[in-house]
Amino acid sequence: MTKIRIAIQKSGRLNEESLQILKDCGISIDNGKDQLKASSRNFPMEVFYLRNGDIPQYLRDGVVDIAIIGENVLIEKGEDISIAEKLGFSKCKVSLAVPKSVKYNSVKDFEGKRIATSYPNTVLNYLKDKGVKADLHIINGSVEIAPNIGLADAICDIVSSGSTLFKNNLKEVEVMLTSEAVLAVSPKITAERKELLEKLQFRIQSVLRARG
Ligand code: PRP
Ligand code: MG
């Protein structure tokens, strides 16, 4: 029997709510969180637990058919990948921030500055649009520490509650984009699996309506 292959975040902010929405759709996943793959008992679905940043490439290659992923990750790494549904959870911003003590006037202040980020394409596109050139330092986590250790003048990262910025004495000065979890689709999905996707989408839409 053909199954639809879905990628969800292995660990982190999206993991729990991704499993919850599948559950609310009546899809039970046999607990396979320690394994990287699990199956559903009552829906033709296989779940792959993957690292966020790897998911766009898996979709592109058609190794998975669909994924629950942050829109911000697609904007950074998967502009070619289409979105079937916005899922309404894991809302966040991707923002530029500077030390609280810095007087900030406008985006032009970033000219020639060192910015630490895990979202280089997003920052570059944003600044290019404003005619600003900066020097990027790409790091994969704990980005907000960079100004405190003298690695950068500013950072660009996800802002959700704002508490990471606050704890590191930073202030948000530019919101580059807002994001939420989305259902993304591989450009290589087969017609047969597309039918399964439609069934899933039908259930997701009624769950989202009920959530209001
Ligand atoms: C994420 C993100 C921000 C923070 C934003 O980091 O990179 O640092 O959460 O959330 P907040 O506004 O609610 O504080 P995470 O904790 O996932 O760790 P990492 O960056 O080291 O991967
Ligand atoms: Mg972080």
TrEMBL record:
It catalyses: 1-(5-phospho-beta-D-ribosyl)-ATP + diphosphate = 5-phospho-alpha-D-ribose 1-diphosphate + ATP. One of its GO terms (biological process) is L-histidine biosynthetic process. Its EC number is 2.4.2.17. It is found in: Cytoplasm. GO terms for molecular function: ATP binding; ATP phosphoribosyltransferase activity; magnesium ion binding. Residues 51-205 form the ATP phosphoribosyltransferase catalytic domain. Pathway: Amino-acid biosynthesis; L-histidine biosynthesis; L-histidine from 5-phospho-alpha-D-ribose 1-diphosphate: step 1/9. Keywords: Amino-acid biosynthesis, ATP-binding, Cytoplasm, Glycosyltransferase, Histidine biosynthesis, Magnesium, Metal-binding, Nucleotide-binding, Transferase. Its cofactor is Mg(2+). One of its GO terms (cellular component) is cytoplasm. Feedback inhibited by histidine. Catalyzes the condensation of ATP and 5-phosphoribose 1-diphosphate to form N'-(5'-phosphoribosyl)-ATP (PR-ATP). Has a crucial role in the pathway because the rate of histidine biosynthesis seems to be controlled primarily by regulation of HisG enzymatic activity. Belongs to the ATP phosphoribosyltransferase family. Long subfamily. This is ATP phosphoribosyltransferase. The lineage of its organism: Bacteria, Pseudomonadati, Bacteroidota, Flavobacteriia, Flavobacteriales. The gene is hisG.
